[in-house]
Amino acid sequence: MSERIFIGVAWPYANGPLHLGHVAGAYLPPDIFARYHRAKGNEVLMVSGSDQHGTPITLTAEQEGKKPGEIATYYHHQFLDSWQKLGISFDLFTTTGTANHSEVTQDIFLTLLDRGYIYKATMSQPFCPQCQRFLPDRYIEGTCPYCGFSGARGDQCDNCGKPINPVELINPHCRLCGITPQFKDSEHFFLKLSAFGDRLLGWVKQQTRWRPNVRNFTMRYLEEGLRDRAITRDIDWGVPVPVDGFEAKRIYVWFEAVIGYLSATKEWAKSVGNEGKWCSFWQGEVKSYYFIGKDNIPFHTIIWPAMLMGYGDLNLPYDVPANEFLTIEGRRLSTSRNWAVWLPDYLSRYDPDPLRYLLSINMPETADTNFSWREFVRRNNDELVATYGNLVHRVLTFVYRNFNGCVPMTGEFDSHSRALMDKAKDTLNTMDGLLYRCHFREAIRSAMSLAQSANRYLDVKSPWKTIKEDRQAAANSLYAALVIISCLKTVLYPFLPFSSQKLHEFLGFKGSVEDDGWQLHFPSPGQGLLPPEPLFSKLDEELVEEETSRLGHVRC
Ligand SMILES: [Zn+2]
Ligand SMILES: [Zn+2]
User: Fold this and answer.
1) Number of the ligand closest to the Cα of 126
2) How far apart are alpha carbons 301 and 298 in whole angstroms?
3) 238: CA distance to ligand 2 center in Å?
4) Core vs surface per residue 434-469: b (16+ CB within 10 A) or e
5) Which of 54, 112, 360, 529 is a plausible cystine mate for 253, CB 3.0–4.6 Å?
6) What confidence tier does 81 reach under pLDDT thresholds 50, 70, 90?
7) How far is residue 74 from each of residues 15, 69, 70, 95, 238, measured CA to CA in Å?
8) How far is the CA of 132 from the centre of ligand 2 (A)?
9) In terms of DSSP H, where are the helices of 195-299?
């Protein structure tokens, strides 16, 4: 029976280009997951969009002398281009700047206000006497009271991931002029998170499928006790507060962006001409997954669930497979210091699959992992080209030349050949279970282990030699190898969609590899092959030094 899977993906701030940390943390994993479920025949909806609001955008605009909307639109188009080139297969990638998103946000705001989960109170807000303005969130910086990190912002510490109140910052200063702010009273709306503590704790305790890092972080956070949080700001960029007297304020981004999962679903339903269809991904038998980086955990395991509980009748997250961080050449990634590999820059010079491969086999699922250009070249050359690509290429070219461009006729298989083909079935089943549980790294490793087994098998059988004395024996072993290759194009499809589709066609299959489903397709003897080309290209060792020297200098 087919399942319904909702995949919510973190909303990137439209204030700068994406980098490999974003891809490894939050964008590649949901794409692998979505492609796998679609191939399984499940009903999938994967949505996200660019986050156009919030101080990351207004601050960038102010620093560059532009309007926030200009910045947001520019990066939104760049994101769309990157998704297309990298093969991130969103069903909808929208923005928080739509009228639809405002309506859905205001509806949730007013409903929670009506039920007493949102209330009005006066709070002390940082105000810069020099700039004559309030300093929400990123406009103020200081030292984190929890971990001592010196670049903590007024809303969150990027080092320890904890949300912060600006009053808690040690040595706070204005990001625009650098002076120490004063604190001034301002009236705001608060989300009554404290009302959800017990319910959240009970709910989180049941989530035994969550990754330990996600569950432990959330439990610690809940055990410390939840505090109510202000959800409006003294800014003029964002979703308007639908209450009289609050015209000069906006609903703040951390309350509003998570609502994007719901508003995007509603937008998608309208776009497919069935406005009511959004319910089928938010109510009843649906599993909702949220793919995010670890810095986003509390927003998806505490704040968004609390908002959903308060609103009622909508599904809570089923799983929140948050990833750890990716370091670059052993150092913490830093966008301000350009210590990053920018995605548009990568995609302008290299193919998508080698990057998808490296970030999958080295995915920061349970601990931080490192990206280095040396490893990129090594894994491309030794694994993608030598283990997988060569297996495919030598088998397909040999069969194509010696069997009139067709899959050979088979005779009786020996036990060695049967064992290899059984391993293909086992791999398909093992990977099914691993992908279902979001264990992507282990899954791709078992696919590569199948490719290695096929290489060892061919070394023993050497059909290139036996064809001279026993044509049927050569045909049998080549057929067994073709079965493995056919299995690999299916199981590697979620990870390497571009090369899998090519291989699907080389093998003489029609349509798309995804539509053919998650099963082992035995090529039919006599089936016509396409003239094969190499799936991957060897990379020059020299690029390691060139690329490494660009780090810290190239801004995308
Ligand atoms: Zn901290
Ligand atoms: Zn200032």
Assistant:
1) 2
2) 5
3) 21
4) bbeebbbbbbbebbbebbebbbebbeebebeebbee
5) 54
6) very high
7) 9, 8, 6, 12, 17
8) 7
9) 197-205, 212-223, 253-256, 260-271, 297-298
Rounded Cα–Cα distance for residues 449 and 245 (Å):
64
The answer to whether 379 and 350 have CB atoms below 8 angstroms apart is no
From CA 479, how far away is CA 522, in angstroms rounded? 9
533 CA to middle of ligand 2, Å?
60
Q: What residues does the ion ligand 1 have nearby, CB within 5 Å? A: 144, 146-147, 149, 157, 159-160
Stated length of the chain: 556
CA of 458 to the centre of ligand 1 (A): 54
Dist. CA 80 → ligand 1 center (Å): 32
- With a cut of 90, say whether residue 165 has pLDDT above it: no
**Cross-strand partners of 182:** 127
29 within 8 A of 70, measured Cβ to Cβ: no
**Residues 260, 262, 266, 269: is their CA dihedral positive or negative?**
positive
529 neighbors 503 (Cβ within 8 angstroms): no
Contact 89, 34 (CB under 8 A): yes
Q: At which residue do the structure tokens 């210590």 appear?
A: 339
CA of 550 to the centre of ligand 1 (A): 30
Distance 142 CA to ligand 1 centre (A): 10
Ligand nearest to the CA of 170: 1
How many Å lie between the centroid of ligand 1 and the Cα of residue 513? 45
For residue 457, CA distances in Å to 102, 374, 461, 534 come to 60, 30, 6, 21
Whole-number Å distance between alpha carbons of 132 and 200? 40
Q: Which residues of 230-243 are buried (b: 16+ CB within 10 A; e: fewer)?
A: bbbbbbebbbebeb
Average pLDDT, the chain: 96
- What's the confidence (pLDDT) of residue 556? 66
Does 17 have pLDDT greater than 90?
yes
For residue 156, the model assigns a pLDDT of 85
Tokens of 281: 């991904």
Please give the single-letter amino acid code of residue 159.
Answer: N
Ligand approaching nearest to the C-alpha of 177: 2
Centre of ligand 2 to C-alpha 144, Å, is 20
* Category of 161 on φ-ψ map: left (φ > 0), alpha (ψ -120 to 50) or beta: left
DSSP 541: T
Cα 301 to chain centroid, rounded: 17
